[in-house]
Write a structure and sequence with these properties.
about 120 residues; mainly alpha; 6 helices
Length: about 120
Amino acid sequence: MIEVTINANSYMNKKINSLALHRTRANISLNDVAYLLNIDTSNLSRIEKGIRKPNVRIILLYHILFDAPLINLFGEQFNTLKEKLIGRSRKLIAQLETEQPPKSKNRIAYMNRFVKYLNESVYDE
C-alpha cells in the first residue's frame, strides 16, 4: 500500500485557495455553494481560506459544480503518489528481472510502459 503524508500548511496554502478561485470565477456566492453542498457557510468559508482542510466529498463536489480538474484540487497529493508509484514500479521491474518468474517479460514490458507514461504525463504542474 502506498501511503502519503501531506504537509497540511503547504497543502492549504497552495490548493485550498483554488476552491475559492473556481467559485469566484463562476460568479457564485459562498452562500449558494454552501447550500448546494449542504454545509454551513462559515465552515465552507474556513475551507476556502485554508483554515480547515476539505474532505474528499467537498473536493469532488467542487469538481462537479465548477468542472474543476481534479489535478488542480489534488495536485500536491497526486504528484507525491505518482513519484512513489514510479519508485515502486521500478523496484518491481528490478525484482522481476532478477527472479524471472513465469510471464515476467509481459509484466516487465507493461511496467516499463507504465513508468514511461507516468514520466511523460501531462499531469505535472
